[in-house]
Amino acid sequence: MQLEKRYSEMSEYELQQEIATLNEKARKAEQMGMVNEFAVIERKAIMAKAYLLNPEDFSPGEIYEMIGAPGTYFKVDYMNGVFAWGYRLNGDGKEEGVPISMLKNEARNQE
Length: 111
Prior knowledge:
alpha+beta
């Protein structure tokens, strides 16, 4: 039995292949009406995408729009690996960690 590699151990090429596979699985799950399965696969793809980005492109104290949630902004308090920790503006004020692939950074091209 082959153990799965962690995203942090994968090369850029392996991550891109994983994302393509996950996107295909998500498309199939959505077509079959498997909402929960779709959501889980979509989250995995978001995590894999985070490992393709440079955490140094995101700065504590900055505010970023959240991808997939127009009008929702996230203020970064600190970084921990590929996670930005902070809180959503106009949210409940609770600290949360989000993968950096969920934050729109004007310094990089957006999908």
